[in-house]
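Thread: "does anyone have the structure for this chain?"

Original post by V.I.:
We have the sequence but no experimental structure in hand. Need at least a predicted one for the grant figures.
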Amino acid sequence: MRQVIGFKFLTTGLLAFCLAYAAFAQEVKIDSNYINSHYTERMDFFHALPVQKHAIVFLGNSITEHGEWPELVAGKKPVINRGIGGDNTFGLRARLNEVLADEPSKIFLLIGINDLFRKLPYEVTVSNYKRIISAVRTKSPKTKLYIQSVLPINEDMLKQPYAAGRNAMVLELNKRIEALATTEKIPFINLHPLFLDAEGKLKRELTLDGVHLKPKAYVTWIEYLKSSHYL
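Reply from O.Q.:
Generated one for you, tokens below.
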């Protein structure tokens, strides 16, 4: 009799848990989509390029895509741009294996602002970061991975409703990414202060639209990486 009662209790508890989880899953919608025409075109372009083994790779979204990295870095090793405008951590994970197949010497990673624009939970973004780190260590163990902080935006210059309140979220995401990098013993490069004005926003003189950077901002970026001996 006790076994029957115990079984009923366990079944009832399990059912309640499943119903609660289903309700939670319906309430929290995760927008993991990353495929669009620009993503596809960039990937086709990458596939058409000659293979460059052991290159320095700048990997990320439009902030990375707009950088003229080979000219900015200009060293003995090849430098390649693997930025895709609009990309998020899901899209980056999906294309990471192709980057790692060429065994880059260094990867400078910057990704996350589009996760925030989509209102993805911090836990989802950090989980994707963990998987990115694991993939690099497993598939290209000699690659030196550098995690760069998400940059601030200038909310005053942005009219899109999804941008409101995002600077505070950038700070929180950076805090979590830095904590992960510390745990995983990976260099965390805090670029955020380089581009801040006195009000904690992206400097107007460094941005085209409140998010994307002007060319001179990339010069500041590279000078910082070199002076800090990351390059």
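V.I.: this helps a lot. The two ends are 71 Å apart (CA to CA).
O.Q.: and The beta strands are 56-60, 79-83, 106-110, 144-148, 188-189.
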